[in-house]
Sequence to fold (422 residues):
Amino acid sequence: MSTQNPLVIRERLSEVRYEIRGELARRARALEMQGQTLIKLNIGNPGKFGFRAPAHMQRAIIDDIDQTDPYTHQQGLPEARETLSALYRKRETPHVDSDRIFIGNGVSELIDMFLRALLNPGDEVLIPSPDYPLWSAATILNDGRPVYYRCDPQNGFLPEPTEIETLVSSRTRALVLINPNNPAGAVYPRELLERIVAVAVKHNLLLMVDEIYDQILYDDARFVPLAPLAGHHPCVTFGGLSKVHRACGWRVGWAVLSGEQSRITDYQNAVDLLSGLRLCANVPGQHAVNAAIAGPDTITPLCSPGGRLYETRRAVIESCAASEHLKLNAPGGALYAFPQVVGPAALGFDDHDFALELLETENLLIVPGSSFNVPFRDHFRITLLPEADVIREVFSRIDRVLARRAEHVTKVVPLKSRSAVA
Fold:
């Protein structure tokens, strides 16, 4: 038996959370190994819910498969970058050409790469709360410090630019936006974006905007791209095939670097260096970019009345409205809902314990709201990808657990102590 010490891991990993694929997901796998059938609502992974990438995109890869063996340019397939530069010029993004486009193995890789090219130890990044936790993790693992600005549920999960500005320090390097938002589904109006751009310009902060859900919109929600509002100011826009085109496993994301050339040259070269170090992104998937951009719109029908995503969202809204234990800001975009537990069930509520109880007693896997770097523990996230009838069953089970909690609280907590429960 070995007497040597175990390997020591990086200390900063203790600061990183990613419950979307963390402890609860590991417990879910163990239950599945025991023969349990689970409804897994933790990941926005369309292919696991019967969605498929559009046929014209699949055909593009098949037709070009004999061209996909070699490495391509570190920034991505030239034809794909030309297509993307044309798309973003059409959106009135300034200063864009193919040299400003970087294709990566999904947006996740690119977020890490662009932060690595920017941050020195101790530098700060302004990140929304709630956030998609990769942003916090990538900041921490690149020796930066996430500083959170509130996106308050009472304000529809929209931030307040004046509060953002109070958080700027001499170490602040970047300001992150997620629009449409994951996990809350908020869609940012133009006036709000203009005010946020003004903060970035005033304090010389790099704007970094995650727009991966840019075409997944419901009802009267309207998406406004950030880069045209930023104009000459440096901005990185992230997008990809994963969500709008339901091609998560292809790992094709892109980043568009806009702004006045004299202000971004060194940064552009730094990102290019990091791109070269990983050689290139997945090549076969890049052959679908032109087909995705030039092909038919396959996402709007899913998000319109009668479409699958729209009807599942409707089922979530109706289920929360019918429950005395839940409150919901209806998502205007993206693939998630972020309900809040209210009333007696919320007294002493812990979102992680609740998620574990749902998993163990109701075979449901959700994500605790605190996983998204919020200061409260009374929310949870689910994906809108299942069929509407499945979602109704999901909320029936959720309500059953919350009703038990409320009944228990009613029995053991004096009435005057419950009066403050929202």
Summary: The longest strand covers residues 145-152. The chain has a mean pLDDT of 93. The chain has 16 helices and 15 strands.
